[in-house]
Amino acid sequence: MNSIKIFFSCCIVFGFLSCSEDDPGKYADYLVARPLTITLQEFKNGVEVVSPKPIAESGKIYAYQDYIFVNDKFKGVHVIDNTNPASPRKVAFIKIAGNVDISVKNNFLYADSLTDLIVLDISDINNIQIVNRLQNVLRDNVVWPLEADIFEYDDWGNPDNVLIGWEVVTERRLIDEVPQRFEDVMMANAAENSVGQGGSLARFKIVADYLYAVDSHSINIFEISDLANPVDMEDVYAGFDIETIFNRGDQLFLGSRSGMYIYDITEPSNPSFISEFQHGTACDPVVVDGDYAYITLRGGNGCGATESGLFLVDISDISNPSLTASYPMEEPYGLGIRDNKLFVCDGSFGLRVYDTTNVPDLVALQHFEDITTFDVIPLQEHLLMVGEETLYQYSYNDVSLELISSMSLN
Predict the structure, then answer these.
(1) What confidence tier does 38 reach under pLDDT thresholds 50, 70, 90?
(2) What is the C-alpha to C-alpha distance for residues 100 and 123, in angstroms, rounded to an integer?
(3) Domain ranges of the chain
């Protein structure tokens, strides 16, 4: 019996008021997840450059020369001309089914499309060209939204459909119906190089002639000396629940839900394990500066931990990283560091700015409240930050940031 039939039956017997969805004894709010799918044919033909369009859900941010690329989760990449930071403008949307990450070198853009690697020539930003597609070279990074209470789908497992992501919404449901629905679903589940800069949430990282793309367990390696024709190298198993990648010199720092893994890339085609730092289970990006790694841990939302914070890890002995200090946070996401300033995106609690001159003793400089923040890139001249469908840009001075512009992505 569906909810509508239950509702009217209940009203006939007990009266309208006793069956209202405001009745806390019968109804409650639940997070309901529904799959976002496209047909297999749409996926195969799912790369296209089109006119600018409103963003559906802002994801990661990437900067290259005078352009900013903002991921639209599972849909593609918005291209923004940032020649004038006070007045950025959209110039195109690159439609890429299932996309969440990009990286750019010498006008060649690399993007994931579920298990495929897409290569585009962006030398003429007004005439972006698709030049290559490597099929089945990446692990599918679409993960189940563990924070959801209910999973709903009518046609799961249809070989003609491709899962590209999940939509999670809050809905009011009859309490008595929810446990069985959730149980049923869980049982059913089984020259000088020009390289851009991504934020701390990136899974793609270009280092010299190699592109490193992490999935939940491995480092996927591509040799890109011929930029239009990447060579898929042997993957390296790296750990569990890997989420992000950061590079410093000949080292890769991988953020996972259980800790930070450090790999040596002196031999770039064969990363070798150096050490790891373990922490409680939580969502985990990492950036590195000097003798310290900065890690944000976001509890809740299916990440495992209940508390959130900023961890400072001493890596002066790279083979034996150790926790030095921690600072409480509310719901941190991306972070970035430049010139003794640390920027932490604290979700709906805004942007926090710290002075790291006397690290590990951080000094709070500014807190931009009343904005939702997700990912941040400290550039040489100014700061880029993406929030809830908004791109923010700030100028630096010695002690503070000042807003240059805010651009709605809708």
Answers:
(1) confident
(2) 22
(3) 3-41+145-188
